[in-house]
């Protein structure tokens, strides 16, 4: 593909990029958050591949069930060891699309929304690696991590990393469809809404900048 060398990108990337032009909606209650999750063949960002992507929207602390995406990607790389976790077979009856089509669907769905995920760095990195294979730039969206938000709440200062299982148990969130991309996105969306409510009580004004800011002091 010659998109990158010539700096000429395909229409779907231009359409995605166009979403970030002009003044962005800054009023918190109107911001569209897209909570998402990826199921993958493993945890090696460079070697492994995305098997499925699941998303669900949150606006004004309300989960918008109808605003979602679920897509499964064809598996050129197959790892039998991870099937026991996500249950996605190489063949099967589930309709699957190519990696490029999956990325197109994802970009068309998220637009300029603020992305939310649990341990978001991994999911974002997997999407960015897929974009790299298409000779495209990285995601432009702002990103929030529910793991970071829980630490920010200071409800538990014993450690800095909490699994989705640990937090869903702590907040009594049913683990329906756990380890499916859509199921984990929905669980994370519930967690996200709960954490927003907790942080709202601690701070009268909540902004994206505040949610992204680390609690740790740097320097003296």
TrEMBL record:
Coiled-coil annotated spans: none
Q: Where is the Exonuclease domain?
A: 32-201
Which InterPro entries does this chain map to?
DnaQ (IPR006054), Ribonucl_H (IPR013520), RNaseH-like_sf (IPR012337), RNaseH_sf (IPR036397)
The protein's name in its UniProt record: DNA polymerase III subunit epsilon
The lineage's top-level taxon is Bacteria
